[in-house]
Amino acid sequence: MAFYFAPYLNFDGQAEAAFSLYQKVFNGTLLIKQTFGTTDFGKHLSADEQKRMMHIALEIAPGYTLMASDILASNGQTIQKGNNHYISLNASSETEAQKWFEQLSTNGSVEMPLQKTDWGALFAIFTDSFGVQWMINYDFE
User: Fold this and answer.
1) What pLDDT, in 10s, does the model give residues 123-132?
2) Predicted structure pTM score
């Protein structure tokens, strides 16, 4: 998959409703809609948290995608002004993902180190030394 840059939003149970609005506003195409309950990770969650969006993506124009997920209180996550958005990068190689993670996370705070995931990717979540929140993803082909 080619490199792309996308805004990534967090919601407290409203991701699906927000993206329903955004889809209407932008006449966009829903690319992905996955709840936590459809994953192995989500099996231990409450019924309410299983219904929350693990990942939702909406193409709002050719080449422009808006992505989001809902937080999980059971995972210690909360929404506060300023922590509800990320810059999400999709790397074109494992080496590129590792390089970005190592360089951007230095002197920052790592929420999830770069690791293999249930959805067949390397993925990381962290805040850099300037307070900017990042997600890095590399999909194995």
Assistant:
1) 999 998 867 7
2) 0.69
